[in-house]
Amino acid sequence: MKAQIKNYLSLTKKEWNGMVVLLVLIALVLIAPYVYQWLRKDNTINVTAFNTAVAALNKANPQPLNGAEQSINDLFKFDPNTTSATDWQKLGITAKQAAIIKNYTAKGGRFRKAEDLQKIYGLTKVDYARLAPFIIISKGNAKTNVVVELNAADSAKLTSIDGVGGAFAKRIIYYRERLGGFISKEQLKEVYGIDELKYDEIKDQVKVDAGRIRKININTITFDKLRLMPYLNYKRVNAIIEYRKQHGDYTSINDLKNIAIIDEGILRKIEPYLVFK
C-alpha cells in the first residue's frame, strides 16, 4: 500500500524541472507590475511651456467663443430686429438660437426694447446680461402706430400691425372667415400661433366692430356649413342637425341646452353668432 502511494506521488526529474519553471513564471507575472512602477518615472509638465503652446495654437487657429466665454472686447452694438444670423453668432449666440430669433422677426415679431430679447426661448440670463449694454433699437424700423379693425381689414391692412407678418395675417383672415367675424379681440388667441406673448404685443393695435359679424340661421344652415364653426366639432354639429330634424326649428338658445353634448361654455361662445328665424 505504501509503495503504491509513493509511486503515485513521486516525480521524475523532468517533471520536477517543469514545475520549477512554472513556479518561476508565476512569480515573475505577480511581481511585474511592481517592477514597472519602480522603473517608470512620471514626466513633470512644464506649465509655462504648455500655456505658451496653447496661446500659439489659438493665435494660429482663432475660434469664435460662445456664451459666457465671449470676450466683452469682441461685442459690438446691434439692433436685434435687423441683426443677421452670422452676426448673432459673432455675438456668442448659438446657431440654433440665432435661427429662433430670425424666425421670430421673419414672422413679424419685433423687439421694441432691450428687455424683449429675454423672451427668446433658449436665451439664458447670462447671455442677456452680456448683450444688453450693446442693444440699440432703431426707431426707424418701427411700423406706424395704427389701430386696425379686425373684421374689415384685408391682409395688407393686417400686416400694418406691428408684430403681424404675412403668415399671421393669412391665419387671422382664415379664422375670421370660419368664425363669421370677431366679437372680441381676445379671440385672436384662438388663432394658431398667437399665444399670450404675441397677443400682448398686438392687442393695443386692434379693435373689433362686433356689428360686422356674419350670423348663422341655425334653422336653415346645412351640416357642411355649420361644420366650419371652430367651436363645434363633428359630433356637436351632427347633434344640432339631428335634434332639429326630430323636434323642428329652434326658437331660442334654450332649445340648444337640451342637447347633452353641448355645454354652457360652448353655448356662450356660439350664441352671438346665431339667429332663430
Q: What does this protein structure show overall?
A:
- The chain has 277 residues and is an all-alpha fold.
- It has 13 helices and four strands.
- Among the domains are: 74-141, DNA polymerase, domain 1 (Orthogonal Bundle); 148-212, Tex RuvX-like domain-like (DNA polymerase, domain 1, Orthogonal Bundle), CATH 1.10.150; 216-275, DNA polymerase, domain 1, CATH 1.10.150.
- A two-stranded parallel sheet has the order 1-2. It has a two-stranded parallel sheet with strand order 3-4.
- It is elongated, with a radius of gyration of 39 Å.
- Residues 63-69 have low confidence and may be disordered.
- It holds the Pfam family HHH_3.
- Keywords: Membrane, Transmembrane, Transmembrane helix.
- This is Helix-hairpin-helix domain-containing protein.
Shape-level CATH architecture of one domain: Orthogonal Bundle
CATH domain class name of one domain: Mainly Alpha
The number of helical segments is: 13
Radius of gyration: 39 Å
Order of helices and strands: HHHHHHEHHHEEHHHHE
What is the arithmetic mean of pLDDT?
A: 83
Which key phrases capture this entry?
4 strands, mainly alpha, two-stranded parallel sheet, DNA polymerase, domain 1, single chain, two-stranded parallel ribbon, 277 residues
